[in-house]
Write a structure and sequence with these properties.
CATH architecture of chain C: 3-Layer(aba) Sandwich
Largest interface: B-C, 42 and 44 residues
Largest sheet of chain B: 8 strands, mixed
Helix content of chain C: 25-40%
Strand content of chain C: 15-25%
Number of strands of chain C: 12
Strand content of chain B: 25-35%
Strand order of the largest sheet of chain C: 6-7-8-3-9-10-12-11
Keywords (chain A): Cell membrane, Membrane, Transmembrane, Transmembrane helix, Transport
Pfam family, one (chain A): OppC_N
Radius of gyration of chain C: 21 Å
Strand order of the largest sheet of chain B: 7-8-9-3-10-11-13-12
CATH topology of the largest domain in chain B: Rossmann fold
CATH superfamily of the largest domain in chain B: P-loop containing nucleotide triphosphate hydrolases
Structural class of chain B: alpha/beta
Order of helices and strands of chain B: EEEHEEEHEHHHEHEHEEHHHEE
Oligomer: heterotrimer
Organism (chain A): Fusibacter ferrireducens
Radius of gyration of chain B: 21 Å
CATH architecture of the largest domain in chain B: 3-Layer(aba) Sandwich
Protein name (chain A): ABC transporter permease
Number of domains of chain B: 2
InterPro entries (chain A): BP-dependent_transpt_permease (IPR050366), MetI-like (IPR000515), MetI-like_sf (IPR035906), Oligopeptide_permease_AppC (IPR053523), OppC_N (IPR025966)
Largest sheet of chain C: 8 strands, mixed
Shape of chain B: globular
CATH superfamily of chain C: P-loop containing nucleotide triphosphate hydrolases
Order of helices and strands of chain C: EEEHEEHEHHHHHEHEHEEHHHEEH
Number of helices of chain C: 13
Number of domains of chain C: 1
Number of helices of chain B: 10
Chains: A mainly alpha (290), B alpha/beta (333), C alpha/beta (331)
Structural class of chain C: alpha/beta
Helix content of chain B: 25-40%
Distance between the termini of chain C: 37 Å
Chain lengths: 290, 333, 331
């Protein structure tokens, strides 16, 4: 390529996102995600009802112009609760993933970069954490500390870091052997400089991919736990406990508007996050240069 | 001050082999097994050998990028390490020494961080050693790129936008950023195209003259070493088996391994007749135990003594050292 | 007229990428006689490897495609064959040796099994018959203790031994044509010498034609009978090996020969070719080598020269060898 051309130079990130833009499924996922995030964030502007306002006279209303998605047994507006529920579900996904990524990246890079005993100890801790059955622990913790949204986030984060720690460690192990790391050492950089300046930027791609998929997992586990009554406490709505509230045979048969919308939202959220995650993986992987 | 820039005495690097359930150390790969090198100021010292002979490890152990197992290295009267006498420079001093000692790497695709711009890559050392502020450092790196035959305006580009030869120039610019005195070049042109190789060699030579550099040039290619280096050491299984000036080594090789290496170089013309010394077998594993000369199993003129006694590296004429029982003083077999 | 093993006429192999399409091989013609070695020299990206993949029908799909030309192997046009018919020829009548023997061997199977697999596919042999033949083949390529090697895995062998195994596998069906794509580039000089010796012996014994692809002119001097010099997908010069070294005509060939470090005398500056290979998306309008050529004339920058026969066995693609009238006619 001729150097004389003043082509605007693109960083590997920009190239990755250019490639992502060409992936239709990922872009659909991304758009859906953006829409849901926006409507959850701006929930108060989109609905005139109060989240927990009880209106027993209007319980079990069918969807109408007034109540777009009907009302529940206490006459609360389902659409409103769905929007607010999105806030909870998404924040559980985000916070738990952030906790998992933070722990996973710190332990994974330390183990991978230093190797030897430190690595051995960290990997054994990973093995131990991987033995804990997630739902069992979650139920126990919820039983002891009482159900709360924070517990769900923390448990899900603390039990979810092992996967990312393994991925990060494997990436660091192969990265460590690359000559530019050695070049950095020859320049006199110490381990901390190297990890922050060279290792972390180069493992961002798998971390982003894993984190995206982790958000989906967080949302699912919140839905699962809340459905069991161990997650978010009513009256705070989340997609999980909205489903739980509609689990009676009667509701399932007669009040479809109570469970189909949250069910669909969970389904489409997970699907679109997974599409985006897969798209990111393909776009950011430097090996797939075409 | 002595005429030598860097002196290494008996440096060794043994990598432990772990095996079994409890990862016990069951042996050592003797990658570098007692190498002594003295490199004069302004000299290009070549280290040749085949893959696995320990030449790259020697280069890295010499400049303390790999923890040595034993031996000592003195750089300009300063002892970098002396394992036997338990002397070692502190991490801080070593960091300061890194300014004087730099390295150029083999693979121009792996040696540049793909997520950094060329300017950041070249300026990284300058900023780290607080020789300049970031902005000045980028300006300096523009000058360095121009010195290495690239446009200074390339500082904002990323490595993937360059070809192999250009990347190698960036790698050289990075090594020069700290005004080093000594550069270890580990097969700097092996991964480049033929027509680009000589470009990079010329650049390295010009820089040497302009900046008064000293090189340790590691290569597997005898043809390049012959032209480029002043003195050459031939390595086999972690030891230098023959060392001499380029002239001595190519016109009067003494060690049977050197002879076979030279005879294996492809012809330069189809009509050229060359007597091949084809070695039997393969290089033994560097983890095996040797009672005598390491070349014994493949040597065409081995005698009984070779399997019993380790030959020393002896000077057979001025500057010409050979480690072989069969070579007598003055260079006669 | 000798028997031709392979004749290639006007082969064009293109690639589609996200940045556009380009021809990696752009109108290549050559012939290989029975029992002869044709060497192709060139730098990376000159199209030499794509030429060999085109012959094997292994151009990566769907991005790569052969857009025109003929590949006549023993008189049969390989481009007209179905994938199934190609499979019968591949590995059987035409065999290939790759640059990196470690990646070309399957790491989870024993050497003996991998050789037997070829014999089973192409010679319809039973598994039990294969082993002695495999040992025989390994012995022929000069591997020590072949009885043991058949029971070993690729990672237990050294690079040189692996390349010998690759050659044994390639020769297992007595191919008429052997394509060797940089077979010694990954090897050390002493091992390279061993492998080249071996290939010469085998060629003499089996009368196999070899298409030898390399970037190393030294290896060409060792091996080749005839040589093609390729640059940017085109043949720049074509002649027999001795003529190429005695009187190279094309400036690119000259520069390649002179930039070899062996040719440099102490104290002299090595010759070097300035600049670099043009990008396939940014090909010069005229001769592809013109921007780097010390002897480039005006016409070189304007118009692509054609391959011109200087003598019966020497062709060159350069405007210098056209008379002024011919040049004028072309402008």
């Amino acid at each position: 390529m001729s150097l004389d051309k003043s082509v605007k130079s693109q960083s590997p990130w920009q190239i990755g996102f250019e490639r992502l833009k060409k992936n239709r499924l990922a872009m659909i996922g991304f758009t859906l995600l953006c829409i849901v995030v926006t409507i959850s964030v701006f929930a108060p502007l989109l609905t005139s009802y109060d989240r927990d306002a009880i209106d027993t006279l209007n319980s079990y209303q069918k969807p109408s112009a007034e109540h777009w998605l009907g009302t529940d047994e206490l006459g609360r507006d389902t659409f409103t609760r769905l929007l607010y529920g999105g806030r909870i579900s998404l924040s559980v996904g985000l916070v738990s993933t952030s906790i998992a990524v933070l722990i996973g990246v710190i332990l994974g890079t330390t183990g991978g970069y230093h190797g030897g005993h430190i690595d051995n100890i960290i990997m054994r801790i990973v093995d131990i954490f991987m033995c804990f059955p997630f739902f069992l622990i979650a139920i126990v913790v919820a039983a002891i500390l009482g159900p709360s949204i924070w517990n769900v986030m923390i448990i899900s984060g603390i039990l979810g870091w092992t996967g990312i720690a393994r991925i990060v460690r494997a990436e660091v192990l192969s990265l460590k052997e690359r000559e530019f790391i050695e070049a950095a050492r020859a320049l006199g950089l110490n381990s901390r400089d190297i990890i922050i300046k060279h290792i972390i930027p180069n493992i961002m791609a798998p971390i982003i991919v894993y984190a995206t998929l982790g958000i989906a997992r967080g949302i699912l586990s919140e839905a699962g736990l809340s459905f069991l009554g161990l997650g978010v406490k009513p009256p705070t709505p989340s997609w999980g406990n909205m489903l739980a509230a509609a689990q009676s045979m009667r509701s399932l048969r007669l009040h479809w508007w109570l469970w189909i919308p949250p069910g669909c939202l969970v389904f489409f959220m997970i699907l679109s996050i997974n599409f985006l995650g897969d798209g990111l993986r393909d776009a950011l992987d430097p090996k797939l240069k075409q | 001050m002595s005429e030598y820039l860097i002196r290494a005495r008996g440096i060794k690097k043994h990598f432990p082999i772990h095996d079994g359930v409890f990862c016990r150390t069951v042996g050592y790969v003797k990658a570098v097994d007692g190498v002594s090198i003295d490199i004069k100021k302004g000299e290009i010292f070549g280290l040749v050998g085949e893959s696995g002979c320990g030449k790259s490890t020697t280069g890295r152990t010499l400049i303390n990028l790999i923890e040595p197992t034993s031996g000592s290295v003195t750089f300009e009267d300063k002892v970098i390490y002396d394992v036997e006498n338990k002397i070692k420079v502190s991490a801080k001093e070593m960091q300061a020494l890194r300014r004087d000692i730099q390295m150029i790497f083999q693979d121009p695709y792996a040696s540049l961080d793909p997520r950094m711009t060329v300017g950041e890559i070249v300026a990284e050392g300058i900023v780290k050693h607080k020789m300049a502020k970031k902005k000045e450092a980028i300006e300096k790196s523009m000058a360095l790129l121009e010195l290495c035959g690239l446009r200074g305006s390339n500082v904002n580009k990323y490595p993937h936008e360059f070809s192999g030869g250009q990347r190698q120039r960036i790698g050289i610019a990075r090594a020069l950023a700290l005004n080093p005195k000594f550069i270890v070049a580990d097969e700097p042109i092996a991964a480049l195209d033929v027509s680009i190789q000589s470009q990079v060699l010329i650049l390295m030579q010009e820089l040497k003259e302009k900046l008064g550099l000293t090189y340790l040039f590691i290569s597997h290619d005898l043809g390049i070493v012959k032209y480029f280096c002043d003195r050459i050491g031939v390595m086999y299984l972690g030891n230098i088996v023959e060392q001499g000036t380029s002239e001595q080594l190519f016109s009067n090789p003494q060690h049977p391994y050197t002879k076979s290496l030279l005879s294996a170089v492809p012809k330069t013309h189809p009509r050229e007749v060359r007597e091949r010394i084809i070695l039997k077998g393969d290089v033994p594993s560097p983890a095996s135990h040797f009672t005598g000369c390491k070349f014994y199993s493949r040597c065409p003129n081995a005698i009984e003594k070779c399997n019993q006694e380790i030959p020393e590296l002896r000077e057979i004429e001025k500057d010409h050292l050979v480690s072989c029982h069969c070579v007598k003083l003055g260079g006669k077999i | 007229m000798q028997n031709m093993t392979l004749e290639i006429e006007n082969l064009v192999t293109g690639f589609k990428t996200s940045d556009g399409a380009f021809n990696a091989v752009d109108g290549v013609d050559f012939k290989i006689e029975e029992g002869k070695v044709l060497g192709i020299v060139g730098e990376s990206g000159c199209g030499k490897s794509i030429t060999s993949l085109s012959i094997m029908g292994l151009v990566p799909k769907p991005n790569g495609f052969i857009s025109s030309g003929k590949i006549l192997f023993e008189g049969q046009d390989l481009l007209k064959l179905s994938e199934e018919e190609m499979q019968k020829i591949r590995g059987n009548r035409i065999a290939m040796i790759f640059q990196e023997p470690m990646t070309a061997l399957n790491p989870v199977f024993k050497i003996g099994f991998q050789i037997a697999e070829i014999l089973e596919t192409h010679k319809n042999m039973k598994r039990s018959e294969c082993k002695p033949i495999s040992i025989e083949l390994l012995k022929k390529v000069g591997l020590p203790r072949p009885e043991k090697v058949v029971e070993e895995y690729p990672h237990q062998l050294s690079g040189g031994m692996r390349q010998r195994v690759m050659i044994a596998m390639a020769l297992s069906c007595n191919p008429k044509l052997l394509i060797a794509d940089e077979p010694t580039t990954a090897l050390d000089v002493t091992v390279q010498a061993q492998v080249l010796e071996l290939m010469k012996d085998l060629k003499a014994e089996f009368q196999t034609s070899i298409l030898f692809i390399t970037h190393d002119l030294g290896v060409i001097a060792e091996m080749a009978d005839n040589v093609l010099v390729m640059y940017a997908g085109k043949v720049m010069e074509e002649t027999d090996c001795e003529t190429l070294f005695d009187e190279p005509l094309h400036p690119y060939t000259n520069a390649l020969l002179n930039s070899r470090p062996e040719r440099i005398k102490p104290g002299e500056k090595p010759v070097c070719i300035p600049g670099m290979v043009p990008s396939p998306f940014d090909m010069p309008r005229g001769c592809a080598f013109a921007p780097r050529c010390a002897r480039a004339m005006d016409i070189c920058k304007e118009k692509k020269p054609a391959l011109k026969a200087i003598s019966s066995n020497h062709k060159v693609r350069c405007w210098q060898y056209y008379s002024e009238e011919e040049q004028c006619q072309n402008i």
